[in-house]
Design brief:
The protein is of the alpha/beta class and 442 residues long. The chain contains 20 helices and 13 strands. It has helices spanning 17-23, 25-29, 46-50, 60-63, 75-81, 83-87, 103-112, 126-129, 149-158, 181-197, 218-224, 245-256, 262-269, 285-291, 323-330, 333-347, 355-372, 390-405, 407-414, 417-441; strands at residues 2-7, 34-39, 55-58, 91-94, 117-120, 138-141, 167-172, 205-208, 227-232, 235-237, 279-281, 295-298, 314-315. The chain is globular. Mean pLDDT is 89; it is low at 382-388 and 412-418.
């Protein structure tokens, strides 16, 4: 099949490992297909517009452009540049996340482009998210990330024996703005509460919600492989921001008063709306910590329906009121090793949580959707069951990426230098002004 993957991962060096794994899973686990990898920051060429594709994948990172501001400079321009997608008879697949953020804009976008398959990570609420797109598209349940076979191989090199690990409890989380509601605040509050509650104990805590401490690439796996315990919770939001109006209100208020409290922002921008619904999903860290064989300390949650408190992880109250009990359980090495192995079996050894299985299922859905559209896709033997070790995965991935980027040689010939140069200058100036505004506010 000829597959176009639309993404927004220009700088792989600073991208989260989970974002790379998710965006390019098809390339890695089904390298027999012909791929075109296109970033939204690259020019849309005549070749891209005229190429006939069998499937078009709208990656999570590409769909994030729905909340870029100003809309006229970003999303409107993007929708105009990629209008050929709406007209294409290819099977179109959307992989959105944070569906509660600009939900109406996302729904209209996917409906206007006649997307055939939507993989929802908040599946229980998909009828609320996709009243328009859901009339045409088949909506399927998905996770924010899966187990990557190559990460298992890497972790075998990175993981330190449990007794020798230098970090007792490790945690990284991004501080979320107020427009994600109280659930969005939980990730930051959890780290702060746990660190404060455990301060008087002789533990090496490596807990941070600061952007400067974010870990990317192999450093993230090394961090997990050197942590005896990993703190965690389900992530998401308790607000539905259909058109980004709550976000705009919060940002305006913070421009006037950067020290505004959550309660002040709630009263001004979303009074009475928070916690009407809770939109949460298990994050990729759940699987990565299991791969690292780091014992997890988790707040109450569903966790892909696979984990039970006590058996697979140490349960932590949201307010950290049971830290005494948690600390005592951390001292029981036999129980913790049993939890680690039970968690590994439940998440890593279950095929349904592997990227390999996700890719095979997605391609099967693409073929079924093609039949419903009256299209006949080319036959191609699957290789997803033959590539198993880390070296072979990297080799097949490299070959597929090289084939995909051969197209860019032709694209360079088509780039209209002046219009794209002018657009680049405008975008750079806007970014500098926004950066300056943030420094002034700080």
């Amino acid at each position: 099949m000829r597959i176009l993957i639309l993404h927004e991962l220009d700088d792989l060096g600073s991208a989260r490992r989970t974002s790379i794994n998710h965006a390019f899973a098809l390339v890695k686990y089904a390298p027999e297909h012909e791929y075109t990898l296109h970033s939204a920051r690259q020019p849309v060429t005549a070749r891209l517009r005229e190429q006939a594709f069998d499937a078009i994948i709208l990656d999570t990172t590409f769909l994030c452009w729905r909340w870029a501001r100003p809309k006229s400079l970003w999303l409107d321009r993007l929708l105009d540049a990629y209008d050929f997608i709406a007209k294409s008879d290819a099977v179109k697949v959307a992989l959105p996340q944070d569906e509660y953020d600009h939900a109406e804009i996302l729904d209209n976008w996917l409906s206007d482009w006649k997307v055939d398959l939507i993989y929802s990570v908040c599946y229980d609420h998909h009828a609320e998210f996709y009243p328009r797109a859901g009339k045409h598209a088949r909506v399927l349940e998905a996770l924010t990330g899966y187990v990557d076979d190559a990460d298992i191989g890497l972790m075998q090199r990175f993981a330190v024996p449990f007794k020798d690990r230098e970090i007792d409890v490790g945690y990284r989380a991004r501080a979320l703005p107020a427009y994600f509601g109280r659930i969005g605040q939980l990730k930051t509050e959890l780290g702060d509460r746990f660190r404060s509650s455990m301060a008087d104990r002789q533990l090496k805590l490596d807990i941070s919600t600061q952007a400067r401490d974010a870990l990317v690439g192999d450093a993230w796996l090394q961090f997990l492989g050197n942590s005896k315990f990993t703190l965690g919770c389900e992530s998401g939001s308790s607000l539905l921001d259909a058109r980004g109006e709550i976000r705009e209100c919060v940002e305006r208020r913070l421009q006037r008063n950067p020290a505004a409290s959550f309660e002040e922002l709630e009263q001004a921008c979303f009074p009475g709306q928070d916690m009407r619904n809770v939109y949460t999903a298990a994050g990729p860290r759940l699987f990565e910590a299991a791969i690292a064989r780091s014992c997890q300390i988790l707040t109450p949650g569903n966790y892909a329906g696979a984990l039970k408190a006590g058996e697979h992880y140490i349960a932590l109250a949201l307010d950290c009121s049971n830290v005494e009990d948690v600390y005592e359980q951390m001292q029981d090495e036999d129980a913790n090793m049993a939890r680690i192995e039970a968690c590994y079996r439940a998440l890593v050894e279950d095929p349904k949580f592997r990227y390999r299985n996700f890719v095979a299922g997605l391609l099967a859905e693409v073929r079924d959707a093609a039949v419903r559209k009256g299209r006949r896709l080319p036959d191609c033997g699957s290789s997803t069951g033959t590539v198993t070790d880390e070296l072979a995965l990297r080799e097949s991935f490299t070959r597929a990426v090289l084939r995909a980027h051969q197209h860019h040689i032709e694209d360079v010939k088509e780039i209209r230098l002046l219009p794209n140069f002018l657009h680049a200058v405008i975008v750079t100036l806007v970014r500098q002004m926004l950066s300056l505004a943030r420094r002034i506010r700080g």
